[in-house]
Amino acid sequence: MSETVSLTYGSEEGDFYMQHIKRTELFERNNHFHSTYEIYYLLSGHRTYFIKDRSYLIGPGDLVFINKYDVHKTSDVGEPGHERIVINFSDKFIDKDQSLYHPSLFNVFEQPAHVLSLKLQDQIFTRSVLDKLDKELKEKATGFETYIKLLLVELLLFSSRYAERNEAAPFEHASPLHRKISEIVQYINKNYAQPMTLSGMSEQFYMSPYYMSRTFKEITGFTFIEYVNMTRIREAQLLLRESTRKIIDIADSVGFENIAHFGRMFKKLTKLTPHEYRKLHRQ
Questions:
Q1: What is the domain range of residue 255?
Q2: Which of 4, 50, 131, 214 is most buried, judged by most C-beta within 10 A?
Q3: Is the pTM here over 0.85, yes or no?
Q4: Are 91 and 207 members of one domain?
C-alpha cells in the first residue's frame, strides 16, 4: 500500500492523538470503537463511513464526529486514494474543572447526524485550525500542550455553532442495502438483551441467512454474532463503570445466560476481566 504519513502524534486510546495521512490505493479500516472522542476530516477522495447504525457517503470538506464507544468503520467507494486528518481525545484532555470546559463543546457528538458538510469558507477555517495543530505538534514549542487544547476547543465550538446554524440535510443511506442493514443494527442496539439468532433475524427482516450474514459483515465489518456480543459487552462496560450491580446480574441483564461465556467474551474484547475493568475505572 502506498501512503504518506505527514503527522502521527500520541495514541488512539491516549488523552490526545492526531494523524494526517494520504493514501493512493484502496484502503478499508477495520471496525472498531474506543473510549475517546473522534474527529475525522476528509481532505480528498470519497469514503463510506459506517457509524453506530448508519452508513454515510462522505467527500472532501466533510467533518465527521464520533462519540466515545460508538462503533465505526471506513471503507472505499470504488475509487482509490484519499487524504484525511483524524483527532482522538479523552474526557480528561478537556477536564470539566478547567476554565476551557463548556457543555456545548460536546454537543456535536450527541447529534443524530454524525457528519457536517462544510461550506467552502468554513472548510478554509477548519483547515487553518488543523494546520495550526499540525505545526504545534511538530515543533513542540514552549506551551504547545496548552495551545493544542485551545485550538481543539476552538474547533469544537465552531462545529457546535455550525451545526446549530445549519439544518442538517435529510439523511440518506448509502444504498437500499445499507438501509436494510441499518434497520437490523438498530434492532440489535435496542434489543440486545433478548435471545437472538441469525436464522431468526433473517426471517424477521425477509433475507436469507446466507445473504444477511454476508452483507452484514460487508457493511459493518462484524459477523452477526460478533456484533451482538460486542453490543452486549459495551453495555456491560457502561454498567460496570456507572453502577454497583453484581457482575453476574450485569451479565444476565445484557443478554448472557452463562457467566463463564460472558467472562470469556468480555476479556476477548477488552483484554480485561469484568472485575479488572471495574477496578480500573473506579480509580
A1: 176-281
A2: 50
A3: no
A4: no
